[in-house]
Hints:
The chain is α/β, with parallel strands linked by helices. The chain has helices at 3-10, 36-52, 89-97, 102-115, 136-149, 162-174, 186-201, 219-230, 254-261, 302-320, 346-355, 367-374, 395-403, 409-424, 432-446, 450-454, 490-498, 526-543, and strands at residues 28-31, 57-62, 71-77, 125-130, 153-159, 210-213, 236-239, 275-279, 286-291, 297-300, 323-325, 331-333, 336-340, 360-362, 379-383, 389-393, 462-467, 476-478, 483-486, 505-510, 517-522.
Amino acid sequence: MDSSKISAALSAHLHTNGTVFQYGTAGFRMDATLLDPVMFSVGLLAVLRSKSHKGKTIGVMVTASHNPEKDNGVKLVEPLGEMLVQSWESYATKLANATTSADAILAVLDSIVKAESIDLSQPAHIVVARDTRPSGQALVASLIDGVQALGGHIKDYGLFTTPQLHYVVRCINTAGTASAYGEPTEEAYYEKLANAFKKITDGYPRLSPLLIDGANGIGAPAMEKLGKYLGDSFSYQLVNKDIDSRGKLNFDSGADFVKIKQTKPLGMDLAPGQRACSLDGDADRIVFYFIEQDNTFRLLDGDKIATLAADFIMDLASSAEILVQRDDGSRTPLQVGLVQTAYANGSSTAYVKDTLKVPVVFTPTGVKHLHHAAEAFDVGVYFEANGHGTVLFSPAAIHAFKSSTGSTPAAAKSIEALRCLTDLINQAVGDALSDMLLVEAVLTYQQKSFSKWNSDYTDLPSRQEKVKVANRGDFVPIKADTELSHPLGLQGKINEEVAKFSKGRCFVRPSGTEDIVRVYAEAATRDETDRLCYTVCGIVFDGYGGVGARPATFLC
Ligand code: G16
């Protein structure tokens, strides 16, 4: 470690304004003007992480996803495309906060090297990409300074969706192995998805065009490129694709807006019966929707995507008579499992357990938690209600799909569809474009309308609100985010309110990506849901550090 080189490089990125940095749900996220020292520290950490993996390539994505355009953020990606392992999140936090002086940063670097027994003579390879935020390029330059100060090699992929960055990381690190994931290029990514989609939908009548809201972010140009590879196999109309005008990214558009407001985005004309979807700012989430003839808005969120996918895969596996080889030599049917968070609608969980008869596991919010839980199954379907998720296939499941032939033409066809799904579905991370094609493939295969899909089960009314508080760190979630241990006494008050409503459920948790706490409620009717949600918002705001104006929408 060349201390003088690190000290000299740090001098251009010193942290001077007292902000406390925290690696949160999806990395560091905040106003972009505060991020320069963080980026430098992430560059250093990425080098150490690569060295600790004996030179495997580590990814860095510069994005603030669904957050406003003025924000930005950064997250690290592990060699197989997963989120940074949790035990390193605290190193990321310590290193970012140590950018106040050369002595502080050298001490933290040294402590990480010792704690992880890192061999500093190992090489370090980093790849970086960014979304369309105006602040992105300068932040990448700060990151590169950090990487080079510790002697790492870095390749800048420029503008990418978040899942594309995860994809190339996985491709680079699996190249030449039995589980090679593909060519680490943007073109190969589109080709892989498009080929799988074309194969699985071949011979079926096309669905009506899909309206796609690109949230004026990176997903829009990516969709346009993907569209060229899909040709006439997929018909769509892209709106909200302006990535050049300032202030438009995610503004009243995108998956998060549509999910929370339960309405169509700005910039989209949606007639009854038309099919639509929204990507988020970095294209790692997607939700679908339509409006009924009576103008009722219907949302098909992550819960609905998960049940559609799980049901489809189980049908294919059953018709293909797939058996999976176990360690003890036995061969048993494919085990499908579903992973949800506290935000999953209660009706979806009941449908999965009682109708699909699939086991459900709950984890705290954050795809990093869901991803690992999903790895326990042959087919692990994980989706957050906000539309972030994917389907993981275990090596044993992939082997079963590859080695089975099928005793009938129908079985052979199902096996072929399962094989296509392993290419169509991004195995590294939730991916809006891949998930969009997954949904469209299932609906094409089954010739199923949005309305029919929506009728699989009826969501309980739900509402999610944000409350600004003085210190969201005071709110400590437990039991997979369903309760709070602190502030003391608050959980008891929430429980009292919940008990007043039939099918009532409510929880409060601090956001890891925004400076707010989230309040989620559901109950038997819309009116009861809103009363429960706004009552709890009021309790939090009034008694637990609400700041600014008491939001006008509060009813109590
Ligand atoms: C990120 C995470 C998601 C999480 C979301 C909201 O999504 O990857 O797993 O659900 O933040 O998290 P929180 O409620 O803690 O703010 P994205 O799309 O913003 O990267």
